[in-house]
Amino acid sequence: GAGVSQTPSNKVTEKGKYVELRCDPISGHTALYWYRQSLGQGPEFLIYFQGTGAADDSGLPNDRFFAVRPEGSVSTLKIQRTERGDSAVYLCASSGPGTSGGNEQFFGPGTRLTVL
Amino acid sequence: AQSVTQLDSQVPVFEEAPVELRCNYSSSVSVYLFWYVQYPNQGLQLLLKYLSGSTLVKGINGFEAEFNKSQTSFHLRKPSVHISDTAEYFCAVSNFKAAGNKLTFGGGTRVLVKP
Fold first, then answer.
1. I need a surface site. Which of A51, B48, B74, B75 has the fewest CB within 10 A?
2. Running DSSP on this structure, what letter comes out for residue A105?
3. Which residue in B90, B100, B103 is closest to A50 by CB distance?
4. Touching check for A25 and chain B: CB below 8 Å?
5. Terminus-to-terminus CA distance in chain B, angstroms?
6. What is the pLDDT of residue B99?
7. Is the Cβ of B105 closer than 8 Å to some Cβ of chain A?
8. B86-110: average pLDDT
């Protein structure tokens, strides 16, 4: 079956602009995660959804970052007033059903965001 | 809170030689442990995971890892590497008791297999 997909694969924007990054999880997966991977580093957790609600948003760096999952499937990560430091690969993962901590997370290919 | 340290940022290794990638973690609670691989221009893929039971875990592509609770380590090994094993490898942990499964990753180890 289809894996996790993310669009766009690459996004170049100018400092101060607004961007939206989209994630389509695997069908039937109730949990969805966003991570950010800066150059030369491991992924860092941003936010976790269980169904439609954000169960844990402790990784969002500041209030410029926001994510939604209105129907419990597709999720959008929104970044306002982008800064050069936001440049990174944004990864989405899904898992489930169920909330077991041992569930495998399936990752998408990522969106590479470049802020000029 | 948890943290993960991957002691080697790069590991060059010759084809058919063994490789070991080191991972140490710190946590105040019990954790699940994972190794992920990221091939060039691809997404992260799960190699193996430790949840409970036997401390020696076998994964895909001939990799295995051993959980050592006293040393808080989860080192990854392969007895004979192939050119196709050239990739970046990430060790990760999640909180055993927390709802959901947010992963805390190490900084990664880049493996370069030479012919």
1. A51
2. P
3. B100
4. no
5. 41
6. 65
7. yes
8. 89
Q: Is B48 at the interface with chain A, CB within 8 A? A: no
Q: What are the per-10-residue average pLDDT scores of chain A (116 residues)? A: 90 98 94 94 94 90 96 96 97 81 86 97
Tell me which residue in B32, B90, B105 faces A102 most closely, judged by beta carbons: B32
| pLDDT tens-digit series, residues B23-63 | 999 988 888 999 999 998 888 999 999 988 889 999 999 99
Task: Please answer whether residues B90 and B106 qualify as being in contact, where contact means their C-beta atoms are separated by less than 8 angstroms.
Answer: yes
Mean pLDDT across chain B: 93
Chain B, nearest residue to A55 by Cα: B100
A31 touches chain B (CB under 8 A): yes
Q: Which of B32, B99, B107 lies at the smallest CB-CB distance from A55?
A: B99
Residue with tokens 């799960």: B46
Q: What's the pLDDT tens digit per position in B58-96?
A: 999 999 999 999 999 999 999 999 999 999 999 999 987
CA-nearest of B83, B102, B87 to B37 is B87
Question: Residue A43 has which token pair?
Answer: 């992924």
The candidate with the shortest Cα–Cα distance to A39, out of B104, B40, B92, B107, is B107
- Cα distance between residue B20 and residue B77, in whole Å: 4
